[in-house]
């Protein structure tokens, strides 16, 4: 994560906490804001679905993330993910992904994440 990416992301989500804009104590480094997890999900989908998202809009439904330690800006990270479950409910297709983010050098887990998206949002007829 570069300082530029973090700054632009913070601007986009209206995040003003000082630790995400500059190095502060006790961390000694600028930190990556937790919601940036969504960027890893988007990259994994883009890399593994080269034909794009399909004809219907994808809706971010819910997510749960666990941050095992602060992530400093400039850290080299590796994200991996699996499709945990795909199911249909009320005529809509849901996709659950489990994602892990690790430090590139040590392999230490820094964040784990479960995301659910609605793949097609075509309301069923009443």
Q: How would you describe what is shown here?
A:
It is a single chain. This protein is an alpha+beta fold and 126 residues long. It has one domain: Thiol Ester Dehydrase, Chain A. It has two helices and four strands, in the order ααββββ. It has a four-stranded antiparallel β-sheet. Strand 3 (92-103) and strand 4 form a beta hairpin. The protein is elongated, with a radius of gyration of 17 Å. The termini are far apart. The model has no long low-confidence stretch (mean pLDDT 83).
Keywords:
2 helices; N-terminal of MaoC-like dehydratase domain-containing protein; 126 residues; 4 strands; four-stranded antiparallel beta sheet; alpha+beta; single chain; Thiol Ester Dehydrase, Chain A
What layout of secondary structure does this protein have?
Elements (H helix, E strand, L loop, with lengths): L2 H11 L23 H12 L10 E9 L9 E13 L2 E12 L5 E10 L8
Antiparallel strand pairs: 1-4, 2-3, 3-4
Protein name: N-terminal of MaoC-like dehydratase domain-containing protein
InterPro entries: HotDog_dom_sf
Organism: Microbacterium pseudoresistens
